[in-house]
Structure formats: structure tokens, C-alpha cells
Amino acid sequence: MKETYKALFEPFRLRSGKELKNRIVMAPMGNWGSLPGGFISEEELTYYGPRAKDVGMVITSATTFTEGEHYPGAPTTLTDEHIPGLRKLSSLLKSNGAVAIVQLFHGGALKMENPEAPSAVAPENSDAAPPHELTDSEIEDLIKKFGDVTKRIIEAGFDGVEIHGANGYLMQQFISPHYNRRQDRWGGTFEKRLAFPLALIEEAKKARAESGKPFAIGYRISPEEPFTNGLTMADAIQIVDVLADQELDYIHVSLHNFFSKPRRGVESNKSRMEILKELVGNRTPLIGVGEITTPEQAAAALSSDVELIALGRALLLDPNWLSKVREGREDQIKNKLFHRDLPELLFPEKMWEHPDLIFSD
User: Fold this and answer.
1) Cβ-contact 248, 239 below 8 angstroms
2) pLDDT per residue as tens digits for the range 46-104
3) Are 217 and 160 in contact (CB under 8 A)?
4) Could you tell me what percent of the chain has a pLDDT over 70?
5) How would you write the chain as a 3-class SS string?
6) Which among 176, 165, 182, 271 has a CA at the least distance from the CA of 231?
7) Which residues are CB-neighbours of 137 under 8 A, at least 6 positions away?
8) Is the pLDDT of residue 358 over 90?
9) Is the overall model pTM greater than 0.70, yes or no?
10) Alpha-carbon dihedral angle through residues 232, 237, 238, 241, given to the nearest 10 degrees
């Protein structure tokens, strides 16, 4: 192994006590592989197996906690009947020493079936009908369901949960001035727009306390929105500043490019990750992600003092990415997707049709 890559293999301990054997995280990626009803399939287990064997932590594909279809083939934690499949998945992910995290998600206004959001506001420049505006009691019900499914996740043997507050989905919609036009305890000011995500964090903490087990709680954010009235980098700084004081195990910053700079709200030559790391300091670890495909890029990202690096496409294309770096075979890493490689990549069958998969042949 090259000297410059050794930092990627250093262990790291989360606040909750879980120890990662290295600094590489498998990023959450939808694989469209669950069975009808959101039950874990054998295809999913086969897909995760080779990708989980080397990394320090795996964050599962976005997993729902409410009724209705959020995206094709999404797993869910909605009932006790889902626990056996989830237990199989947690056992598999942990079998080679990875910390296993479930990402909990709600599509909100982007939900495929019966969309619902803080306000009856559709995405900008969209032909979609406005979503159902959640009532106060419906919001309270979502918070309770979140606590219930967190208990199921603990029972299923997972090491933690990640609240998916990024990529324009429901938790982000509550914070977004574009989506949240409410004038009640869930909106109207910056502090009130944060009330729903903070309530979910507290509900997860309650479930953890009741279990008496070490259990990680993370939060994923997107720093900016493309909407005219959407979140800016200045907003992201405020949000992360609040999240950093919630005693989370980590904050996961969702970016298309790890090294990208702010679009608006902040004038700086520094990258978004550099700005957020300076803000957070040692209060909470950060996970960075976004177009990191080579060990050189991963090492450069880690050298910015961010604690953990998440890989998405890199592990899709080459489940042996990390072992090849460790063994000095980084020149053998596969970085393009060819149809001929599909059998050995072990994608669930429906994932072959995923619009984000770009083939080189």
C-alpha cells in the first residue's frame, strides 16, 4: 500500500461507541431490489455482500417508515413482519466487521404515491400537482412512527440510523423556505422549520435510551437547493451549526462533488466541506461524499480533516475497490460500467434499468 493511502485505513470511533475499522463508508444508494411490500430480498443480500466486506461502515439504501410507494423497490421498516429480513441484512453487513446503519427516508412532495409535504407546494418548474399539506396531527404521527421503526431497527441488530434530511426529501422540505410556508409550530421562522427534524432526532434518542444499547444516530443534509426561494449555503451553515450541538454520531454532507464551492449565500474560495468543517470543529464528525472514485481523491478528501469518506459509484463499479488499494493494486480498479460486467457486479435485476446507471458500451 502506498504511504499516502494509509490514512484511509485508520480506525475511527463514533460517539455512541461503535468503532469503524477504516475511514471508508459505503454511501446509501437505492438498488430497487426489495420485494413487494418493502421486504428485503435475496437479490439485495447478494448485492450488499461483496461491497460490505471491506468498508468501515455501510449506510443502507433509503428505507421508508410510512405507507405508500416512495420509489421503486424501496425497503421498509413499517411492520414487525419486516424485522426478519432486516435482521438478515444487518447480520450480513456486520459479518466482516462493518458498522451497519439504516437510512430512514420519506419522499414528501417527491413521493410517488400520495405525496405529502409541509405545505401544498410542488417543486419549482414542475408539472406535478401540489402535495397534500400535512396536518399537525399527521406530523405528530410521523414522529411517533419514526420512533417505532427505530426500535425495530435496533431489534433487527443494526448499529444505527441515519435521518435522510437531504436531496430534497421530506426532512429537508420542512427546513426549506420553498416547501415550508407554514405559520405554526412547524414553520414561519428558521427555528420552527427545524422543529420537525429535531423532533425526529429526539425520538431516535428515546428509542436508543429505551433499548439500553449503543446505537449511532446520524443526519444527512444537502447544503443548497436550486429553487429561487430555496436553501443557500448561508442557510446550510445555520442548519449544520444547530445539528452539531445535537450530540449526533455524524453529519453526512450530500454533495455531487466533494470539492465543490458554494453557489450562493456565501462568497468564499473555500469548498463547502472546508467551510462546514471549520464551523463544526470537533463537535461532530463529518462524512463527505461526491464523485470520489480514485484513492487519490479519497486521500485528498480525508486530508481536509473530514473524518469519514463515503463512496457510492466507486463501490458500485468495483466492490473490491478498498482491497485493491490496500494491496497496492489500485491500477486494477474498475471505473467504468460495461454490460459484460453485470453478472459479477450482482446488481438486483431491476437496478439494471436504473436511470443513473451510465454504461460505457
Assistant:
1) no
2) 999 999 999 999 999 999 999 988 999 999 999 999 999 999 999 999 999 999 999 99
3) yes
4) 100
5) CCHHHHHHHCCEECCCCCEECCCEEECCCCCCCCECCCECCHHHHHHHHHHHCCCCEEECCCEECCCCCCCCCCCECCCHHHHHHHHHHHHHHHCCCCEEEEEEECCHHHCCCCCEECCCCCCCCCCCCCCEECCHHHHHHHHHHHHHHHHHHHHCCCCEEEEEECCCCHHHHHHCCCCCCCCCCCCCCHHHHCHHHHHHHHHHHHHHHHHCCCCEEEEEECCCCCCCCCCCHHHHHHHHHHHCCCCCCEEEECCCCCCCCCCCCCCCCCCHHHHHHHHHCCCCCEEECCCCCCHHHHHHHHCCCCCEEEECHHHHHCCCHHHHHHCCCHHHCCCCCCHHHHHHHCCCHHHHHCCCCCCCC
6) 176
7) none
8) no
9) yes
10) 160
Q: In whole angstroms, what is the distance from residue 8 CA to residue 298 CA?
A: 8
Task: Give 90-136 as a 3 state SS string.
Answer: HHHHHCCCCEEEEEEECCHHHCCCCCEECCCCCCCCCCCCCCEECCH
Count CA within 13 A, CB hemisphere, residue 228.
Answer: 2
Comparing 354 with 315, the larger pLDDT belongs to 315
Nearest-angstrom CA–CA distance, 202 and 208: 10
What's the whole-number mean pLDDT along residues 120-137? 92
Least confident of 64-68, 249-253, 271-275: 64-68
34: cell is 426489495
- What is the Cα–Cα distance from 75 to 62, expressed in whole angstroms? 7
Q: What is the pLDDT of residue 353?
A: 79
State the amino acid at position 50 in one-letter form: P
